[in-house]
Amino acid sequence: MDDLIQNILICGIGGQGVVLAGKIISLAAFESGKDIKTSEVHGMSQRGGSVSTHIRYGKKIFSPLIPGNEATAILSFDIYETARYIRSFANEKTIIISSNHGKIPQWTPKNKNDKIGNGAETVNENGSGAIDEDGVAGLLRANFKSLHLIDDKRIAADLGNIKVSNIILIGILSGFSDIKKEIWLKSIEKNIPRKTADLNINAFLTGRNYYENQNHENKIF
Asked: The whole model's pTM is what?
């Protein structure tokens, strides 16, 4: 697997920890001896706009940007951003790990007759096209077999701080990789304040346990 190029796309909105997640994943890949390149794309992050990070690693990487429809995995902290980025980067084999919560995006109106767009129409209980989390979830389930929609906000709140929801999803992602768990843990410790180490490690292990309880037998990337 070391010879293969792995493409990890992280997406969300400003303030959800996209950049921090990129640093943690990048350091873990680097500490595993992989060649790695990253690229951060910031929208209006200070106003809750779209933010994404491209991470590519393998034996030798020449470009930091993930080619179209070649994401190995998409890690998303907002379900609407998941719907946005699958159009350009996902394929039938892409692992999608996403929050099942989201903020109605600025790129589409909020009334009941509106669509996500580009073929990604959502459908609510009365059968009309509308923008809602359940509709987007249905769209994702219908199109992607390797999909994990996580109630990360609730899990994080149960752990004591909703801000660690991004670390929970990183924990799930880590299980699919061939990077050792110990390296992930060290990368988290190096990228977070020492006073929050226990909370963040617990969040990571919670996500990792979710992966392990799914009975996955093989590493995918």
From this structure: 0.88
